[in-house]
Amino acid sequence: MAVERTLVLCKPDAVRRGLSGEIVARFERRGFVLKGARLLKVSKGLAQQHYEEHKGKPFFGELVAFITSGPVLALAIEGESAISVVRTMMGATNPANSAPGTIRGDLALEMSENVIHGSDSKASAKRELALFFPDGLV
């Protein structure tokens, strides 16, 4: 296994509902190390870059509108197989299909506001970390 670094976003609904601490605690309890954290308001331009693989899809505008609707807590998380383990801990994109014990299964209320984002591959993690931590500190 390899030590990896990945991006996690506590989305605006998680920040608004006061769930960021719970989400960070779950990753720390799992043994992951927090290498960076930024609370920020995502600009429309950053949102469009972040979701570029969905450009042209009917839900692209909704993704951009939601991620820019309030503060986001961006996290750089590191540990063994971080990318796949974080994705497993998050649960299915649709909270209705997320198992109890997963972040979305326990905390998310609906598909359009599902509290968390995590990079889905090494390439995505590298690209997304550079977007949210442009100063290169992570």
UniProtKB/TrEMBL annotation:
Keywords associated with the record: ATP-binding, Kinase, Magnesium, Metal-binding, Nucleotide metabolism, Nucleotide-binding, Transferase
Pfam families (alphabetical): NDK
InterPro entries registered for this protein in UniProt: NDK-like_dom (IPR034907), NDK-like_dom_sf (IPR036850), Nucleoside_diP_kinase (IPR001564), Nucleoside_diP_kinase_AS (IPR023005)
GO BP term, example: CTP biosynthetic process
Entry's EC annotation: 2.7.4.6
Coiled-coil ranges (or none): none
Requisite cofactors: Mg(2+)
One GO MF term: ATP binding
Residue intervals of the Nucleoside diphosphate kinase-like domain: 3-138
HAMAP family (alphabetical): NDP_kinase (MF_00451)
Family recorded in the similarity comment: Belongs to the NDK family.
Protein name (Swiss-Prot/TrEMBL): Nucleoside diphosphate kinase
Organism: freshwater metagenome
